[in-house]
Amino acid sequence: MDSLDMQIIKNIEKEGRISHEELSKRLNLSRPAIHNRVTKLEEQGIITGYKATIDWSKLGFTTYAIISLRVRTVDYDKLLEQLKNLVIPDLVIEECHIVTGTWCILMKVRCSTPLGLKAIQDELHKIECIKESSTSLILSSLCD
Predict the structure, then answer these.
(1) Which of 31, 43, 59, 134 lies at a CB distance of 3.0 to 4.6 Å from 24, suitable for a disulfide?
(2) SS (H, E, C) the chain
(3) Using only C-alpha atoms, what is the Rg of the chain?
């Protein structure tokens, strides 16, 4: 992997639908060379897929929060599966991370109203191993 591969990766990460033609213009490489490099990165498992970036606010999901959880468990995989399977109307769990530090798990959620945050808190505290939670509203973000 060289600096050109890193530039390709950064461009694709930022714009998943960028064409090989556009990449070749930006990086001053031929389109076949870009195609070969992208194919190699895919085959090596470095590029594992392409995704859409969603403007959740246009869907009405205007409340964005981080929920910190303190838990007591020996089976984090089972807990993460429980969290992944939570179904709460008008709420999307975007991310869920096991972390070090004061809290054990950080969740990023979006909902249409603050009532969604109450609903997820109610569901989270039904899970026996969750001992404490803290919810922080996200007011703005540098990158989204």
Answers:
(1) 31
(2) CCHHHHHHHHHHHHCCCCCHHHHHHHHCCCHHHHHHHHHHHHHCCCCCCCCCCCCHHHHCCCEEEEEEEEECCCCHHHHHHHHHCCCCCCEEEEEEEECCCCCCEEEEEEECCHHHHHHHHHHHCCCCCEEEEEEEECCCCCCC
(3) 20
Residue type present at position 69 = L
Spatial separation of the C-alpha atoms in residues 41 and 119, rounded to whole Å:
42
Cα separation, 119 vs 92, in Å, equals 12
- 18-71 residue pLDDT tens: 999 999 999 999 999 999 999 999 999 999 999 888 889 999 999 999 999 999
The reported pTM is: 0.78
Half-sphere exposure for 107 (CA within 13 Å, toward CB) = 23
Dist. CA 108–CA 102, nearest whole Å:
17
